[in-house]
Design goal:
Blueprint lengths: L6 H13 L1 H16 L6 H42 L5
Helix pairs in contact: 1-3, 2-3
Length: 89
């Protein structure tokens, strides 16, 4: 059984996670913009808009924060591993 990580792969994972923040921002912006420009009235729209502005956006904001934190953690750990291994980047 192996314990540890390949520093380069760990850094790539971290950077990949951090890059996902931008597409989530874009998704949120797109849906908000399209919803704002959609002619739609009634209880169904009100429910959707409340869900979008509440539950959905909170979930997406949480996902962004989690990806950013996990990505940063992976990158920092990879840098620490490189130092321990005597390699510099």
């Amino acid at each position: 059984m192996m314990y540890g990580a390949n520093p380069e792969q760990l850094a790539e994972l971290g950077n990949t996670l951090k890059r996902q923040v931008s597409p989530i921002d874009q998704l949120m912006s797109t849906v908000t913009g399209v919803l704002s420009g959609t002619t739609w009235q009634g209880p169904a729209r009100e429910r959707f808009q409340e869900d979008w502005n509440g539950t959905f956006r909170k979930a997406l904001d949480g996902m962004k924060a989690a990806f950013e934190a996990a990505g940063t953690d992976c990158v920092v750990r990879s840098q620490d591993l490189m130092k321990v291994m005597g390699a510099t980047r």
